[in-house]
Please model this.
Amino acid sequence: MRLRNKPWAQKLVLEHPEALLNEPDPEIKIPWQERFADFSKPLAIEIGSGKGQFIINWAKQHPEMNFIGVELQTTAAGMILRKKLADQIDNLQIMCADAANIALYLPPKSADIIFLNFSDPWPKTRHEKRRLTYKSFLDKYKQVLKDNGHIEFKTDNQGLFEYSLQSMNNYGMLFDFVSLDLHQSNSEIYKQNIETEYEHKFAERGNRIYCVHAHFEKVRNKKDEKVCRVFDK
Model:
């Protein structure tokens, strides 16, 4: 998604450093305890927040959690910030930053959920390393997620979905939920689903929405039982 440059967004971003980190230095530790009223709450991160519909609604519905929206484009980050300020959402912080540095921005084992919603598919083979489910990104997510944390991934792109399943599987991740058509599902996950802007548009067109929830396998003893994998239709 590429948005037209909006001068007001750049101005707003610069006026509110308390709510939005603009291109933070990966070498400088971010004092998250000062940016949230209670940083001990469960933490969810959305990588690629777009205009913010998903992360804004999640934060409103779950005041018992903290949220960080990571967005590369200043205009999009400014749109999220405007909504956050208008609705006075105190449990949401925004970062206008490159997700490739996510493990440098956050303390190890600090996040409970990482959301990947309708990421750029980067369909050309030579761009594989830019996909947010490429193994180098999975490695960073593993560093940031708690041992019981997980990734929630949604897309309308079948090719990216198939690639992501393979990439996660090759990395040794385990699938908790897989759906080939989330909006036709009767699962509790769909009943609790919050749509992104893209998801709403694509679903109205009748496009399938693919979804997977996955976690990193812990180091297990031989006596430990295998994790059950659940698949939706």
User: Anything to note?
Assistant: The radius of gyration is 17 Å. The beta strands are 20-22, 43-47, 66-71, 92-96, 111-117, 145-155, 173-179, 210-216. Residues 181 and 208 are 5 Å apart (CA to CA).
